[in-house]
Amino acid sequence: MKISQRLKAIAHLAENSFRVLDVGSDHGYLPYLLLKNSEVVKVIVADISNESLLKAKGNLETFFDSKTIEERVKFKRADGLKAVRENEVDTVVIAGLGGLLISRILKESEAVRKTVDTFILQPRSNQGSLRRYLMASGFLIEREILARDGKHISEIIVAKNTDQSIKIEDNEIAYELPLKLLDTEDKKLLLEFLNNKKEIEEFVLKEVTESKGTDSIEVIEKMKRLSYIDEMIKMV
Ligand SMILES: C[S@@+](CC[C@H](N)C(=O)[O-])C[C@H]1O[C@@H](n2cnc3c(N)ncnc32)[C@H](O)[C@@H]1O
Q1: Is this model's pTM higher than 0.85 or not?
Q2: Of 102, 119, 139, 207, which residue is least crowded by CB atoms under 10 Å?
């Protein structure tokens, strides 16, 4: 079984919790890592798809005896946080889903989410939108972590509940590339991540310049985004 650095990093963040909900578990690799790395953690393996749940069950049964599974694992077919009641888990992991879907899942189960201690979120798209939603909805983003996943670099967001909404500047790129990313220990990975973003931004700027002309609003906007990334690269 080949498990990505991304899932290993997520497991590492969750393995000190006692009760973890894994939303959208699919193959069950995260629960596998949690059971293997910790003697105490209990996991609710949840998925909206029955097929995925059966896959997770099959994989876990290959590696753990029935006593371990009976005592430490529950399988639930459910949409998002509807898999649990209030106060049933300390940590919620939602990994490998789109950022808009993750926001929807959190929004739909307000009462449950208020009783959760830590959220480990790994959006595979719309990361900026998810951060914007979190900050506007009473979450505090505590940590940002980058982890390699094959050819991609994944963004992992660790968030907690707070009483306040945090207002940050209305600058889309600041949500897409928050300054907290600069805390990343692996500077080589961070530079690779930022340079990939820069390359995409340069390409877009070239396209927009060719079609709209150098002094269009879009070009000025794209140039601002590029200089934000340049500044960030200088700060690494
Ligand atoms: C791409 S897999 C991610 C698997 C694993 N979490 C990972 O990060 O490698 C997405 C899984 O999420 C499940 N899923 C999609 N929407 C969901 C929802 N609203 N609630 C629970 N599970 C969902 C899918 O059935 C699928 O098994």
Answers
A1: yes
A2: 207
